[in-house]
């Protein structure tokens, strides 16, 4: 981790710790302690405490009694809630973005799609996850619906972890490009209904796959615990 040198230290510490979590360098379920983080970032424990409180509000970490702070683990229930919520919000955003499209919006959307295609060609899962999120966030922005954007901001950091975890399972990056290309092309073609349908279909397809993956892990974990009793 990089040490924190500049002020405001609280903001810098928050950004640095958030990046470590989202990029997967700090895994879900990891216990976080003020002493260790303060030493790694070269800041005070008070500064670290500010960062932990902020990330707690963003839903990236939780405080467990008698344990401390831990990076939020993604359960099958969490994944189901996130993908169903994304499906609703992003389908609406795709529809509205189509109706509100401008020339600058077209350029921005094309740029995001090109960035995702480049990351997929390199088969860099972390870069794919960041480009994936950037594309969807751009569509949210292009919808020009402030209340929709505000609702998305409430969960966007959790969505970033969800996307990173889900994209890490991808073995065929061409499918990722195809799904997103279809959504973008529908938006740029002015087909609002098709853009909305494809966006919802994309979230549902990937979401159900991820949920099933997590359920298998949970079943195996529960089975192991039962055998140990």
UniProtKB/TrEMBL annotation:
It comes from the Bacteria. Keywords: DNA-binding, Transcription, Transcription regulation. Residues 7-74 form the HTH gntR-type domain. InterPro entries: GntR_C, TF_FadR/GntR_C, Tscrpt_reg_HTH_GntR, WH-like_DNA-bd_sf, WH_DNA-bd_sf. Pfam families: FCD, GntR. GO terms for molecular function: DNA binding. Signal peptide: none annotated. PROSITE patterns: HTH_GNTR. PANTHER family: TRANSCRIPTIONAL REGULATOR, GNTR FAMILY, UXU OPERON TRANSCRIPTIONAL REGULATOR. This is DNA-binding GntR family transcriptional regulator. It comes from Ottowia thiooxydans.
């Amino acid at each position: 981790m990089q040490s924190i040198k500049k002020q405001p230290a609280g903001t810098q510490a928050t950004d640095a710790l958030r990046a470590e979590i989202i990029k997967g360098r700090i895994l879900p379920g990891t216990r976080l302690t003020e002493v260790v983080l303060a030493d790694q970032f070269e800041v005070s424990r008070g500064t670290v405490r500010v960062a932990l409180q902020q990330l707690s509000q963003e839903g990236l970490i939780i405080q467990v009694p008698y344990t401390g702070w831990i990076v939020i683990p993604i359960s099958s229930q969490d994944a189901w809630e996130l993908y169903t919520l994304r499906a609703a919000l992003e389908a609406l955003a795709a529809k509205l973005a189509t109706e509100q499209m401008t020339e600058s919006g077209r350029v921005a959307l094309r740029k995001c799609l090109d960035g995702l295609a480049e990351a997929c060609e390199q088969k860099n899962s972390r870069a794919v996850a960041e480009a994936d999120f950037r594309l969807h966030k751009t569509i949210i922005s292009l919808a020009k619906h402030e209340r929709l954007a505000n609702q998305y901001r409430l969960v966007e950091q959790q969505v970033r972890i969800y996307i990173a975890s889900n994209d890490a399972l991808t073995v065929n990056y061409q499918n990722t490009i195809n799904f997103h290309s279809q959504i973008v092309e529908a938006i740029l073609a002015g087909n609002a209904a098709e853009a909305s349908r494809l966006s919802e279909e994309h979230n549902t397809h990937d979401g159900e796959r991820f949920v099933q993956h997590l359920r298998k892990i949970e079943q195996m974990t529960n089975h192991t615990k039962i055998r140990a009793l």
